[in-house]
Design brief:
By secondary structure, the protein is α+β, with helices and mostly antiparallel strands. The protein is 33% helix and 27% strand. It has a domain at 63-89 and 105-233: Roll (Nuclear Transport Factor 2, Chain: A), CATH 3.10.450. The radius of gyration is 31 Å and the shape is elongated. The N and C termini lie far apart (96 Å).
Length: 238
């Protein structure tokens, strides 16, 4: 008498289950790799043609995103253009008689004047802030800037990395000196100019056909896709 009958074991169901598990595992790996490749493709630099015809390599970013370096470049350049006053035109000819140079006559702001360069840089300020700030600069600008006797230069000593306030908004601290050069005194007189600058992302529309001088100036000041909406004294005690 046999205690146990010998039976054949059917491995087919087990093999089917194993194959299914392997296929699912392979599918998940492929899905993960596809996601990584898609992300890499989306961040790959793309050749972009600007409106002026030049081409640059760019990486797609969110509508309200800006890189730290882009923000620092924008703030540093804008503040230097706002606070560096010079009516003398640039010339590479060292032998040119200064008396033959055509001085910047400036732009009228109330009963005061701004240099044309400062006026153009002012378009980088938000509309609810620009007029009042430009009036303050006009009050600070010596009248003999427009005779070529006085010049100024903003020397930025420190610009902090941008601190994100909210989506599309940042603040930065700037430590600088405003140096005034008068007459033949090229040593200059330095005045502390320490500020906290508030920046936000904006959309910059393309230039229209046959743009005016004002439209071109506004576009150049805002083509970085940012604007300064507040400038306040830096709290050095914080």
């Amino acid at each position: 008498m046999k205690l146990l009958d010998k039976k054949e074991i059917n491995f087919t169901p087990l093999l089917s289950i194993g194959q299914t598990i392997i296929l699912i595992f392979v599918f998940l790996i492929s899905l993960a790799n596809s996601g990584r490749l898609g992300k890499m493709a989306s961040t790959k630099p793309t050749l972009v043609e600007l409106q002026d015809g030049t081409s640059i390599r760019a990486i797609p970013i969110g509508e309200k995103e800006r890189s730290d370096q882009a923000i620092m470049n924008f703030v540093g350049r804008t503040m230097m253009n706002l606070m560096s006053w010079n009516a003398l035109p640039k010339s590479s000819d060292e032998n040119l008689d200064p008396r033959k140079l055509k001085l910047d006559t400036g732009v009228q702001i109330g009963d005061k004047k701004l240099t044309t360069n400062t006026w153009g840089a002012g378009f980088a300020l938000s509309e609810d802030f620009r007029a009042s700030f430009l009036r303050e600069i006009a009050l600070l600008t010596p009248s003999d800037v427009f005779t070529g006797e006085t010049q100024s230069a903003l020397l930025v000593r420190y610009l902090s990395p941008p601190e994100k306030i909210s989506e599309g908004k940042w603040r930065m601290d700037m430590v600088a000196n405003l140096v005034i050069f008068k007459g033949k005194d090229q040593a200059g007189n330095a005045i502390s100019f320490n500020k906290t600058v508030f920046v936000r992302a904006i959309d910059t529309p393309p230039l229209p056909n046959n743009p005016s001088v004002q439209v071109i100036a506004a576009y150049n000041a805002r083509k970085a896709g940012m604007e300064i909406y507040r400038i306040q004294d830096l709290d050095l005690g914080k």
